[in-house]
Amino acid sequence: MFDIVLFVVFPYVAVTVAIISGISRYRQNRFSYSSLSSQFLENRTLFWGSVPWHYGVITLLTAHLLPLLFPSLWGDLLSDRIRLYVLEVTGLGLALMTVVGMTLLIVRRLRSPRVLAVTSTADWLLLITLLTQVAIGFWIALVYRWGSGWYLHTSVPWMISLLVFQPEIQYVTALPWLVQFHLLAGFFLVLLFPFTRLVHVFTYPFTYLWRPIQVVIWNRRPPQKQRP
Ligand code: HEM
Q1: Distance (Å, rounded) from C-alpha 105 to C-alpha 127?
Q2: Pocket of ligand 1, beta carbon within 6 A
Q3: What is the pLDDT of residues 43-72, one digit of tens each?
Q4: 139 vs 53, 91, 99, 175, 182, CA distance in Å?
Q5: Model pTM score
Q6: Which CATH number fits domain 2-226: 3.40.50.2300, 3.40.50.300, 3.40.50.10490, 1.20.950.20?
Q7: Quick check: 138 and 100 in contact, CB under 8 A?
Q8: How many CA atoms, within 13 angstroms, populate the side-chain half-sphere of residue 179?
Q9: Ligand 1 atom having least distance to the Cα of 189
Q10: Where are the domains of the chain?
């Protein structure tokens, strides 16, 4: 019964709340759909934290999504030993990048009084959950080898069973507790999505690709000696 609450009820509740609250936040407060940059408050550590964090997490999320979208293609990809090794090592390296990046982002918020002043409780909850999630992901990759393979035969069928509304939890209930925690923390992050700065993930400026170019002109008087 408890497993049903965790692996069926909780994911559905998380996704439903995320969709409804996400749409309502967008409709009521569209300009809050942002990560509210703090670059002008502190720039140096932000660079060293944000760059590894974003490159790492975006690639890892894509790698988590691909087996779900193309399971047989992913299976073919892993059928070669060299490709499997390359994927595992790359995944481990990317996970380490995210752990280092997020640690720096958290330390930055603690050490810079100006950034600390603009950090909300929701920010702390999000940053700490993200750090926990990537640290556990890194640990799983290290301890339970060949995750790119067993993920395809455990978590993927479980998520597909949820997607088609025929939940089959036996795929994940036998997994080690750390892996189960990682799956549930993923849905917890989905739940946090509409209430935090995570919404910025859906504000990627794709429209910049086709909008007309923008001409920026300085509206400043030139220095005295340059004037005729
Ligand atoms: C779609 C691609 C993404 C873009 C273009 C993007 C862009 C940004 C930008 C511009 C910032 C603000 C940095 C600043 O303070 O100036 C930021 C912060 C942040 N992003 Fe992203 N992001 C993306 C994806 C993600 C993903 C997938 C996650 C996590 C799952 C994420 C988590 C964060 C977090 C936690 C912060 C706050 C860091 C801090 O200020 O302490 N981002 N992102």
Answers
A1: 8
A2: 35, 37-39, 46, 50, 54, 57-58, 61, 105, 109, 126-127, 130, 197, 200-201, 204
A3: 999 999 999 999 999 999 999 999 999 999
A4: 17, 11, 11, 15, 10
A5: 0.90
A6: 1.20.950.20
A7: no
A8: 17
A9: 30
A10: 2-226
